[in-house]
Design brief:
The protein has 2 domains: 61 residues, no CATH class; 94 residues, Rhodanese-like domain (Oxidized Rhodanese, domain 1), CATH 3.40.250. Helix content is 48%, strand content 11%. It has 9 helices and 5 strands, in the order ααααβαβαβαβαβα. The protein has a 5-stranded parallel beta sheet with strand order 1-5-4-2-3. Strand 4, helix 8 and strand 5 form a beta-alpha-beta unit. It is globular and about 50 Å long. It starts with a helix and ends in a 13-residue tail after the last helix.
Length: 170
């Protein structure tokens, strides 16, 4: 499953939404399990699960914006709202110019008065932002995109002056 989740970042969300698999302790799976093992245990046809995962992945790809495409749109002065979904500490340390930290208060404002401009959400490495972007779309904010690779991808592909970092968790 670890390899699958690496190849298809939205697979965890998809498996839970389609089959209620992987969202809680009673239906969880291990990183070293295969999709076939998870499907067998949950009585899901493997071919069906693969089709559902691939369809979901295609939809997810439509929610992504590549760093170079974002740079082009910023250079064209396209009105964009850059939203940082990382922690306040990360945002305070390094951020995309002009971005805002997505706080609960700001999020409530976005839902109460949706902005006309496109919203670009970003995280550290692009691992969580797709789920948040899909959540935004599911709640009516259809003009949201997720920055592929996060701020780390931006630093690697667009602006090497943006400090790269690694989080060390306990």
């Amino acid at each position: 499953m670890e390899d699958l989740l690496s190849l298809l970042p939205g697979a965890r969300r998809t498996l839970f939404a389609a089959y209620h698999v992987g969202g809680c302790q009673s239906c969880s799976y291990k990183d070293d399990e295969t999709l076939a093992e998870v499907c067998a245990r949950n009585e899901i046809p493997v071919e069906e699960a693969i089709a559902v995962l691939l369809e979901s992945h295609e939809r997810d790809q439509a929610l992504l914006i590549m760093p170079l495409d974002l740079q082009r749109r910023l250079n064209d002065d396209e009105p964009l709202l850059l939203l940082d979904i990382r922690s306040r500490e990360e945002h305070d340390s390094v951020r995309l110019p002009g971005s805002k930290l997505l706080t609960q208060e700001l999020q409530n404002t976005l839902f109460a008065h949706p902005p006309e401009e496109t919203m670009i959400l970003y995280d550290h490495r692009g691992r969580d932002v797709l789920d948040r972007c899909a959540w935004f779309h599911g709640h009516g904010l259809k003009n949201s995109l997720a920055l592929a690779g996060g701020i780390d991808g931006w630093a690697r592909e667009v602006d090497p002056s943006v400090q790269r970092y690694r989080l060390e968790l306990d």
